[in-house]
Amino acid sequence: MHGGAFPAWLAATQVMILPVSDAELPQADALLRRCIDLELRAQIAGPEQGSLGARVRAARLVPFQAVIGAKEAGADQVAVRLRDGRRLDSMLRRRVPGPQRRVGRRPQRRPLARVTAPM
Considering the domain 15-102, what is its CATH architecture? Predict the structure, then answer.
């Protein structure tokens, strides 16, 4: 049905943080802490795990990929892309509204109606 690309609220990892180089790791750590504070499930895939392209491909089923390069780190921003490759506007790291608003919470189901048999 979804080929492993679970809805954001159900995905094991909702945000994959991808620093371009070791120089952006402090900003990636700060973003990870911010995501956790916002109750988002996030991980960092650092440069030691391969090239940026390889890490993007490895995270193709994660709903949101947050890329932090030198430009983004200098401007205190994050470049966010969706799993289908579309890019969201750069957003400030201290806000992180996009993924949190889009992920939301698990949809609430209405309780099943009780059926009582006539006595």
Answer: 3-Layer(aba) Sandwich (3.40)
